[in-house]
Amino acid sequence: MLLSFLVYVLAWAFQAFTGFGAGIFIVGILSLFYEPKTVIVSSTVVNLLGIISMLLFLGKITRPNFKILFPLIAGSVAGIGVSAKLLMEIDREVLKALIGGFVLFLGIYDFLVQTNSLKFRLKASPFVGVFTGFLSGIFAGLIGMGGPPPVVYLNQVCRDLNTYKITLSFFFATNVVFRIIFYLLYGGTEYWSYELILPAFLGAPLGVFAGIYLSRYFTPYFVKRFISLSVLSLGLFLLLEGLKEFSHDFFKHSVIEESPYGGLKSHKTPGN
């Protein structure tokens, strides 16, 4: 429990500072010590606790921009539906590399905008919101990471950092609630681990408090650039991870197919 508690503090301190990223730390680290499916399913409850903490802390300061939020939610629902179909037809390793490359592009683009090296800034509109949410839903359904598109979008259209964070938190909250409902309907709750969930009741709020408190010591300009670099780093990680998995599977299958012994089968002789 101590390990998961420390991971939750770190993960939610990062998310409270940048607005996203807790799930990457939680699933990435704890899956090394626990069964991955148990971590993924249990993390929905952990993430809900963290999001509630974000909303409670930030709700005293600002309110979400619902005009921006609703198109994002509508688009994400459609994207999740499309991803269910794509997941059955597309190689996951290739997909992860492609999405990683796109996220890397998003991070570079947003960094150039935040440093005023590029003047083409996204504008808040229902169309852009729905399209961004759609991409987020596809990414979430295919690789479990739907954060980068709305992060980049809101990082550019929300001037105030707290408005950016609370609007993004509401968006993530809807995704997590839908996932929990699906788990309740289809029996996924059997993978809930109280050993993983209980430490979050203290670890998640403590991490959120630490992240929000820490962000007060940095200028919004610095935080926005840090968000861009975080998206960029995630994209690079996904790209390299996808290429590594694809090359490993490609090499393994190539060796089996080319081996002169690959097609041999054992035949029993009469009497054996």
How would you explain this protein's 3D organization?
The protein has one domain (2-250). It has 272 residues and is mainly α. Helices cover 76% and strands 0% of the residues. It contains eleven helices and no strands. The radius of gyration is 21 Å and the shape is globular. The chain has helices at residues 2-18, 22-30, 36-59, 66-86, 92-114, 126-143, 148-157, 161-186, 194-197, 200-215, 220-258.
Rounded to an integer in angstroms, the radius of gyration calculated over CA atoms is 21 Å
So what's the overall shape? Answer: globular
The helix tally amounts to 11
Number of domains: 1
Series of H and E elements: HHHHHHHHHHH
Calculate the mean pLDDT score and round it: 83
- Helix/strand-derived category reads mainly alpha
Q: How many beta strands in the DSSP annotation?
A: 0
Report the β-strand fraction as a percent range: under 5%
Helical fraction? over 70%
Unreliable stretches? 261-272
Distance between the termini: 55 Å
Summary keywords:
272 residues, mainly alpha, 0% strand, globular, disordered C terminus
Question: Topology of this structure?
Answer:
Layout: H1 2-18, H2 22-30, H3 36-59, H4 66-86, H5 92-114, H6 126-143, H7 148-157, H8 161-186, H9 194-197, H10 200-215, H11 220-258
Helix pairs in contact: 1-2, 1-10, 2-3, 3-8, 3-10, 4-6, 4-8, 5-7, 5-11, 6-7, 7-8, 7-11
Family: Belongs to the 4-toluene sulfonate uptake permease (TSUP) (TC 2.A.102) family.
Keywords: Cell membrane, Membrane, Transmembrane, Transmembrane helix
Protein name: Probable membrane transporter protein
